[in-house]
UniProtKB/TrEMBL annotation:
Keyword Chloroplast: no
Domain of life: Bacteria
Organism: Caldisalinibacter kiritimatiensis
Name of the featured protein: SipW-cognate class signal peptide
Organism placement in taxonomy: Bacteria, Bacillati, Bacillota, Tissierellia, Tissierellales
Signal peptide extent: 1-19
Pfam family, any one: Peptidase_M73
Keywords noted in UniProt: Signal
C-alpha cells in the first residue's frame, strides 16, 4: 500500500504599492496597497475567481495525498488578470507565511518546503522549477520578465507540485499552507543595472544566488556578477556568464527560443573553473577563443565575483542580455570538467549599463 505523505495549500496573494511618491510615478509590488491611483492610471494585478474579477488576489489551489516522486504529479491552474488601467510586466514569484496546519502534533509541518518541488508556468512561459524553500529566500523567485500584460489581459498560471524522491518517512501526514505572491511592475520602472554601485538580485537556484552591479574601479567601468554558493564550501566551482546583444531593448521579451535562434551582434561565453583558476572567453558565433586584455575580465577568488570591463562592448550599447549559470562539483578524475547535467542557470535577463 502506498503511504500518503503531505498536503500543501497554496493561498495566493498579490500585493502592490508605489515607490517615490510625489516625484516618480512607478507602481511596484513591494507592499500592500489598494486603490493606487495617479493621473497615469492604476496598476492592479488580480485574478478570476468563480468567474469574477478580483483585485490583489487569485484563486487558492490545494495539493493533497502527495508522496515522494509520485507520478503523475499534482497539477493545478489559476488565472491572473490585469484588472487595472496600466500595462505592466511580471518578474518574480515568492512564497511566504508558511503555516503548520497541524499545530497539535510534535512536528513542524513547514519542513515540507525542503522536499516539495514546484514547477510554474505563466502564460505558457516557464518561470520556476525547484524547491518551494527557494521561493521563500529573500533573493529568490526572479524570472525572465513577461512583458506586455495589458489591461484586461489574463494569464493562466499552471503549478505542478511533487515531492523529492528522497523524502523520508518523517514527512508522512504533514500539512502546511503558504502564500504565493506574483510581483508585477509598471513597464517604465528602472531595470537591473541602474544606477551605478547598486547591487541587484539576479535570482537564485538550489545551488547558488547571484547579485550584479555596475562598478567603477581602476579607472574602468565594470559589470560585476557575484555568486553566493549553497553550500559555501566545495572543492571546485564552475561559473558561466553568457552575454548577447540583439536589440538592447529591455522591453523586448527574452525567451530561451529567441536566445538560441535570433541573430546577434555578439555572443560570448565566459567560463571559470576553480581547478585551473582560468577565465576563458569563448565566441559562440565563430567558435574561437577571444584574447582580451588582462583587466578586461577579472576574477575575485575570495568573493566569487566576475568583473567585465564595459569598454569591451561598443560605446553606443545601452545594455546586454545575460544568462548566469554555475555548479559545484568534485571529480578526482577530471575536476576541470563538471557534469553538464549539474549546471543550473538563472533566467535570461536584460542588464542596463546606465549610460
Amino acid at each position: 500500500m502506498k503511504k500518503r505523505f503531505a498536503i500543501l495549500v497554496l493561498a495566493f496573494a498579490i500585493v502592490f504599492a508605489m515607490a517615490g511618491v510625489g516625484t516618480m510615478a512607478w507602481f511596484t509590488s513591494q507592499a500592500t496597497s489598494t486603490g493606487n491611483t495617479f493621473q497615469t492610471g492604476t496598476l492592479t494585478l488580480g485574478g478570476v475567481i468563480d468567474g469574477e474579477d478580483v483585485a490583489n488576489k487569485f484563486a487558492t489551489v490545494t495539493f493533497d495525498n502527495m508522496e515522494p516522486g509520485e507520478p503523475p504529479e499534482k497539477i493545478q491552474t489559476t488565472v491572473l488578470k490585469n484588472v487595472g488601467s496600466l500595462p505592466f510586466y511580471l518578474y518574480r514569484i515568492t512564497a511566504s507565511d508558511l503555516v503548520d496546519n497541524n499545530p497539535d502534533n510534535e512536528k513542524d509541518d513547514t519542513i515540507l518546503d525542503e522536499v516539495l518541488m514546484i514547477d510554474i508556468t505563466i502564460g505558457g512561459e516557464h518561470v520556476y522549477s525547484g524547491k518551494l524553500s527557494q521561493l521563500v529566500e529573500e533573493n529568490g523567485g526572479y524570472f525572465d520578465p513577461i512583458y506586455g500584460i495589458e489591461p484586461n489581459d489574463t494569464q493562466d498560471m499552471v503549478i505542478t507540485a511533487y515531492m523529492d524522491t528522497n523524502a523520508g518517512n518523517q514527512y508522512q501526514g504533514l500539512s502546511m499552507t503558504c502564500d504565493l505572491t506574483v510581483h508585477a511592475t509598471q513597464s517604465e520602472t528602472p531595470i537591473q543595472g541602474e544606477p551605478d554601485e547598486t547591487w541587484h538580485n539576479m535570482g537564485s537556484t538550489s545551488n547558488f544566488r547571484v547579485q550584479g552591479r555596475n562598478h567603477q574601479a581602476f579607472f574602468r567601468d565594470y559589470v560585476q556578477f557575484d555568486w553566493d554558493w549553497n553550500p559555501d564550501d566545495s572543492d571546485f566551482e564552475y561559473y558561466e556568464v553568457m552575454i548577447k546583444h540583439e536589440t538592447g531593448d529591455p522591453n523586448v521579451e527574452i525567451t530561451e527560443e529567441r536566445w538560441q535562434t535570433e541573430e546577434t551582434f555578439i555572443w560570448w561565453k565566459i567560463t571559470r573553473n576553480h581547478y585551473d583558476e582560468s577565465i576563458v572567453v569563448h565566441d559562440m558565433i565563430t567558435g574561437e577563443t577571444i584574447d582580451l586584455d588582462t583587466y578586461d575580465v577579472l576574477w575575485n577568488v575570495e568573493k566569487d565575483r566576475i568583473s567585465i570591463n564595459r569598454n569591451v562592448f561598443p560605446s553606443d550599447w545601452k545594455g546586454i542580455e545575460v544568462k548566469l549559470s554555475g555548479t559545484q562539483y568534485k571529480d578526482s578524475n577530471n575536476p576541470s570538467l563538471p557534469d553538464k547535467s549539474t549546471i543550473q542557470s538563472l533566467p535570461i535577463q536584460y542588464w542596463s549599463f546606465d549610460e
